[in-house]
TrEMBL record:
Record's signal peptide: 1-23
InterPro entries named in the record: Oaf, Oaf_C, OAF_N
Pfam families, A to Z: OAF_C, OAF_N
Annotated Out at first protein BRICHOS-like domain residues: 28-177
Keywords, alphabetical: Signal
UniProt name for this protein: Out at first protein homolog
Family named by the database record: Belongs to the OAF family.
Domain named Out at first C-terminal: residues: 201-269
The keyword Signal is assigned to this record: yes
Keyword Membrane among record annotations: no
Length: 271
């Protein structure tokens, strides 16, 4: 007998299910309403492309910033892009684009194939994640040449070519990629706080033309991080597990990177 408790977790199970569709070249999108940390509601667009073996998650923040997260399962790379509206009255361009590239580990997010089959029963429900994962701090002290970045992931160029000089990765990721045969010309190591004595956090810098260490935070408020399995006993008493829903997670990322001018890191002032 299946007992369904009315806890938020089990409601989550019953609200998502799998569409019975054939998997060849599956492409699908899901719109999920989520509550952001500041209480506002935003609509997240989750797209799965099972042929490219990738997932895209996109949402707009209240300040107009467009956040895009891309998981490339073919090359085990994840991409975060922020399109930040510039302050024209402060001499900034119309928007600023930042791209952070890092390795995708297994079990961070459900597969593109599972994602492509996911449907929700009530698209108007406002969702909050079942599990809040700890915020990760990432020191992005290597610049990536976006023209050559196809070697890491073929999805980087289209996603990050707007971010002319703001494509970053971590040193540990670079070392891993160099070990797998990626050319060194893809990367350029940036000055770090330890190498540039006096490199301050942009928060404490007053001069807009001074270099500093900038931080940018991204929060993925809701994403399917795990599959849930149920069991049904057949007439012979055998039970086989089957996919019956997803677990949703939320996770924050704090990226820190070198910037040549505080002018490119004005959000640190408003924080
Ligand atoms: C990136 O690589 C391209 C192609 O090799 C090169 O022309 C360009 O100068 C490089 N950009 C930077 C900033 O090094």
């Amino acid at each position: 007998m299946l007992v369904r408790f009315r806890s938020p977790g089990s409601v989550g199970v019953s609200l998502f299910f799998w569409a019975l569709v054939l998997s060849a070249g599956l492409c699908s999108e899901l719109k999920v309403r989520v509550r952001l940390a500041d209480g506002r509601i935003t609509e997240e667009l989750l797209e799965a492309d099972s042929e490219r073996d990738s997932i895209t998650l996109e949402y707009r923040q209240a300040d107009g910033t467009l956040i895009t997260f891309l998981a490339d399962f073919k090359q085990d790379v994840k991409i975060f892009r922020a399109l930040i509206l510039g302050e024209l009255e402060r001499g900034q361009s119309q928007y600023q684009a930042l791209c952070f590239i890092t390795r995708l580990s297994h079990n961070e997010i459900i597969s593109s194939e599972s994602m492509a089959r996911l449907r929700q029963k009530n698209p108007h429900t406002i969702r909050t994640a079942e599990e809040k994962r700890p915020t990760e701090t990432l020191s992005m002290n290597v610049a990536v040449n976006v023209t050559l970045a196809w070697q890491l992931s073929t999805l980087i160029y289209n996603t990050c070519s707007l971010a002319h000089d703001g494509v970053y990765t971590r040193e540990a990721d670079m070392r891993h990629w160099l070990d797998t045969g990626i050319e060194g010309s893809v990367f350029e190591t940036l000055p770090q706080a330890v190498e540039v004595p006096g490199l301050q956090s942009c928060r404490s810098v007053k001069d807009l033309w001074q270099s500093c260490s900038c931080s940018y935070s991204v929060r993925l408020e809701w994403y399917p991080c795990l599959l849930k399995y149920c069991r049904n006993k057949d007439s012979l008493g055998h039970s086989a597990p089957y996919k019956c829903g997803i677990k949703s997670c939320s996770k924050g990322y704090d990226f820190t990177y070198y910037t040549p001018h505080k002018q490119l890191c004005l959000w640190e002032e408003e924080a």
